Amino acid sequence: MQFNLTVLPGDGVGPEVTNEATKVLQVTGKRFGHDVSLHYGLVGGVAIDQLGTALSPDTLKMCRDSDAVLLGAVGGPEWDDPKARVHPEDGLLALRKGLGLFANLRPVKVFPTLVDSTNLKPEVIKGVDLIFVRELTGGLYFARPKRQWQTSRGRRATDSMTYSEQEIERIVRVGFELAQGRRKKLVSVDKANVLESSRLWRQVAMEVAKEYPDVELEHMLVDACAMRLIQNPPYFDVLVTENMFGDILTDEASMLAGSMGMLPSASLAEVPQEGVNIFGMYEPIHGSAPRRAGLNMANPIAIILSIAMMLRYSFGLIQEAQTIETAVDDVLQEGYRTYDIMDEGKIRVGTEEMGDLIAGKVGG
Ligand code: IPM
Ligand code: MG
Questions:
Q1: Ligand 1, atom 7: nearest CA belongs to which residue?
Q2: DSSP 3-state helix, strand, coil percentages of the chain (rounded to 5)?
Q3: Ligand 1 centre and the CA of 265: distance in Å?
Q4: Is 235 a known active-site residue?
Q5: Mean pLDDT, rounded, for 82-90
Q6: Cα separation, 302 vs 72, whole angstroms
Q7: Averaged pLDDT for residues 335-356
Q8: Other CB atoms closer than 10 Å to residue 135's CB: what's the count?
Q9: What is the mean predicted confidence (pLDDT) over 199-203?
Q10: Domains of the chain by residue range
Q11: Could you tell me how many helices (H) and strands (E) the chain has, helices first?
């Protein structure tokens, strides 16, 4: 198979972890006889500095013309001025919107070898295996009005939480489809006791549920969900929620896995179905970690696991994906750790060494 990828390393630790991901992909290609063709582009702060925009039309076109996109991370203090005309994050949002990536999948799995090294009690997180389906192109991030303005009594600003039934339907459907292939439990997260958009969300979720009688649907308020995620995380199988709720809850949930550096993500343009290869963008859920940049410190596991998700969803290569996941597991079992998951008696390694170790396992 031919992999035609756009690679957008971005800012901070982005380029370092991206290097390790492409390394692992190349080795996977070699082992299984696939041809990897990589096209590099700029996004985020580096794009602002070099092109004056966080995402150029040419880069967006390059992404559209490829089978999938691999993204490192965007952002950094040098572009953080709230008064600035453009921010690195604008590039990421323009990619999501411009590529129609409405479904963001964020699996949270606790590797057995890390059960004792997180901030939570082992008995609380043991067996956690859940997946978030976060709506990615609507809600507070995109809906209009969205602006800041002057009034005679000072400045005002607004963002809007607006959803159409079509937007809700397609994302809830992703939740049901995934739940069907898993433990058949879907939690739809909303704030229907207060928000009108959430009341529509709940209605649509109930309507779609009729097509999936084998899946148990539960509605959960977002505040209760935040609590339950820490109180009893193995309770969850699939969660589906709107953009902003999903942003917040997935950072919270990352701590179940020990570190943001462990969590991959896939942003898809279609409802995933077995046997259908779909366009997607793959990235770690962590940010650009500017303080760690250039130090060969960052954990590349999140983006390497994102490569596995890419092979699964955009190329239908289950065996290849599993080979990468098993390699990560093996390397962790052998005791290798980056700084963020380091524990007593383990072997501390840098970004590159971790990438080499995993690539070595994949290579066989
Ligand atoms: C994420 C990030 C982004 C988001 C930022 C960088 C715009 O936090 O992917 O979770 O808020 O969606
Ligand atoms: Mg986030």
A1: 89
A2: 45, 20, 35
A3: 11
A4: no
A5: 95
A6: 10
A7: 96
A8: 26
A9: 98
A10: 1-106+265-364, 129-255
A11: 12, 14
pLDDT at 117: 81
Which DSSP category does 85 fall into?
S
Distance CA 192, CA 200 (A): 8
Q: Which residue in 87, 132, 92, 91 sits closest to 109, CA to CA?
A: 132
Is CATH 3.40.718.10 correct for 129-255? yes
pLDDT at 207 > cutoff 90: yes
Write out the two tokens for 199: 């009341």
Other residues' Cβ atoms within 10 Å of the Cβ of residue 106: 24
**DSSP output for 179-221:** HHTTTSEEEEEE-TTT-HHHHHHHHHHHHHHTT-TTSEEEEEE
Q: Which residue has the tokens 């409802």?
A: 271
Same fold, 1-106+265-364 and 129-255: yes
Which listed residue (11, 67, 90, 141) is catalytic?
141
Is position 141 annotated as part of the catalytic site? Answer: yes
Pocket of ligand 1 from Cβ distances under 6 Å: 75, 89, 92, 247, 285
pLDDT, position 331:
98
For residue 106, the CA-to-ligand 2 centroid distance in Å is 11
Which protein residue has the closest C-alpha to ligand 1 atom 10? 247
Flag the least confident range among 183-192, 252-261, 297-306. 252-261
- What is the best residue among 69, 86, 89 to mutate for testing ligand 1's pocket, by most ligand atoms within 8 Å of CB? 89
What is the CATH number assigned to the segment(s) 1-106+265-364?
Answer: 3.40.718.10
Alpha-carbon span 284 to 71, nearest angstrom: 8
User: For residue 257, what pLDDT is reported?
Assistant: 92
Q: How confident is the model at residue 116 (pLDDT cuts 50, 70, 90)?
A: confident
Report the nearest atom of ligand 1 relative to the CA of 89: 7
Going by their DSSP bridges, the two strands 264-268 and 35-40 should be labelled as unpaired
Minimum CA distance residue for ligand 1 atom 12? 247
User: Given a cut of 90, is residue 275 above it in pLDDT?
Assistant: no
Of 11, 67, 237, 247, the active-site residue reads 247
CB atoms within 10 A of CB 197: 21
Structure tokens at 288: 């650009």
Confidence at 273, pLDDT banded by 50, 70, 90: confident
Angstrom distance (rounded) from CA 83 to CA 49: 17
